């Protein structure tokens, strides 16, 4: 038996599959009404099932005309990866999620195995002894983004 979370995820994935655009736009409250749940359940699905590491980019605008826009990232050499990199936030940067993202880039052949391994090395906490957690994450994020930008944009 599928859970509410699975049902919401399936619904959003179906919308993405039939969308003629590179994204789907929904309203959180409308989706919550459709599935007879609270908006925080929708937030949970977006955060856990539509993360950057799983190949999705989620934008939201709050307020009366607010929306949630979900992009499925599919073009490893195009604007989508650059857009994705610009969204990586230091406050929420976690090496485990970055490693999942690297794996996805490798699977889509945007990175070679060697490139992915080299960038993965930058994510190891052991290289940043003596730094506090926040400083370590800030440095890791900066090196991670710079490395990917150089490879994906073809500059060095």
Strand content: 5-15%
What is the general shape?
globular
How many H/I helical runs?
Answer: 7
Helix content: 40-55%
Low-confidence stretches: none
Q: What structural class do helix, strand and pairing data support?
A: mainly alpha
Main sheet: strands, sense, barrel: 3 strands, antiparallel
Q: Sketch the topology as an H/E string, one letter per element.
A: HEHHEEHHHH
Number of domains: 2
What's the pLDDT, averaged over the residues? 82
Oligomer: single chain
**How large, in whole angstroms, is the Cα Rg?**
17 Å
Q: What's the arrangement of strands in the largest beta sheet? A: 1-3-2
C-alpha termini separation: 50 Å
Please tally the β strands and state the result. Answer: 3
What does it look like?
- This protein is mainly α and 156 residues long.
- The chain folds into two domains: 4-72, Phenylalanyl-tRNA Synthetase, Chain B, domain 1 (2-Layer Sandwich); 79-152.
- The chain has seven helices and three strands.
- The chain has helices at 4-18, 28-34, 39-49, 79-87, 95-107, 113-122, 133-152; strands at residues 23-26, 56-61, 67-72.
- Helix 2 (28-34) packs across helix 3 (39-49), helix 5 (95-107) packs antiparallel against helix 6 and helix 6 packs antiparallel against helix 7.
- The chain is globular, with a radius of gyration of 17 Å.
- The termini are far apart.
